[in-house]
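Our consortium's second objective concerns turning raw sequence data into structural hypotheses that experimental partners can test. To show how far this objective has progressed, the report includes one record in full. It was chosen at random from the queue rather than selected for favorable results. The single chain below, 212 residues long, was entered without modification.
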Amino acid sequence: MLFNNRKQAGTKLADALDKFKDEQVVVFALPRGGVVLGVEIAKKLHAPLDLVITKKIGHPMNPEYAICAVAEEGEPLCNPSEVARIDSGWLDSEVERIRQEIKRRRQHYFGKIKQQNIEGKTAIIVDDGIATGFTMMAAIKEITMRKPKQVVVAVPVTPYDTAKKLKSMADELVSLHIERHYLGAVGAYYIDFRQVEDNEVMALLKSVNNAP
């Protein structure tokens, strides 16, 4: 399955989520790429769009290799076998550094606007794709803490093994294609996978949440 761009993927995913149209829904996008899809879903479901901001912690000897993922609140989600072999003091300071960066990003995107209250509502978490699934799993953990009615994960393409993990953590996974032979990179499923910039994220959030 190949998408022209994130907007097209978001439109198709929104159609697959149509059954939630009459429910109280809040859409949570993982920035930055997930916001483009989140806009299409929020418009389709007439729902507010919020962010769930997660960041990975890379191994100290190989920063591109994720060993943990941190969300805005709660404990980090980590690979136990990896963190057992690194300095706990380094990890604690890295978690705190990333938490401060996450707070800065929320302030940048939203200013003083408070997070959406989702208690008793359906929370739909969306991203433009999944590789290891670490950041999405951290997002699920974060949103679940806030006591929604149900947590739905929405992703265009999901690796088969990762899909099983996500289904065990969320109430439902909505994916257009679950891939047994994953191509290894999210961008491989898009013709246009250009980077989404901060100013675009802010404009997209405003286009949904300030709409009449």
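The partners drew two points from this record. The chain has a mean pLDDT of 93. The helical segments are 6-16, 33-45, 80-83, 88-110, 134-144, 160-169, 198-209. Both points have been shared with the crystallography group to help prioritize constructs.
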